[in-house]
Amino acid sequence: MTSKKLPEWVPTAGHQLHLTGIHFDAIRLRGIRGEAVLQHLATLTEGEPGPVVREVAGARWTYFLIPPGASEGYDWPPGVKCFGPATRDEWVGIPAPDGNTYPLSWRCGAPEEDEFVDPELLHGLVLAQLAPAAGEESG
Predict the structure, then answer these.
(1) Residue 17's beta-bridge partner residues?
(2) Which residue(s) pair with 15 in the sheet?
(3) Is 105 helix (H, G, I), strand (E, B) or coil?
(4) What is d(CA 33, CA 18) in angstroms, rounded to the nearest whole number?
(5) Each residue of 2-20: b (16+ CB within 10 Å) or e?
(6) Residue range 17-28, pLDDT digits in tens
(7) Integer Cα distance of 45 and 42 in angstroms
(8) What is the pTM for the complete model shown?
């Protein structure tokens, strides 16, 4: 079991759905795109990117949890789903830090209280990942 001071919205067993925009906002990316952004984020933060939830079944979504309300300060590009206060009745599954939480898991460990992904850094990485490769000619 972890010795971290967990946020009250992290369950002790299994997983629970939480309404976004209250305890956190979530930025969702699909499959390999989410993994690529997470890899860059982890590199830039020395392996401490903040809370990131991964769904290992279906579309293999990656959810980056940012401070509540922070998603409104950014224009998220197509292909990115923003779950925040501007959306209505949007829920995200949150796994426990340990045990059977299938199909959800923490990618870099469960968060400590008041720990979030840096929304500005995340936004920059998402935009860079979606931008055309440097030197690539159009048309």
Answers:
(1) 93
(2) 95
(3) strand
(4) 24
(5) eeeebbeebbeeebbebeb
(6) 999 999 999 999
(7) 5
(8) 0.89
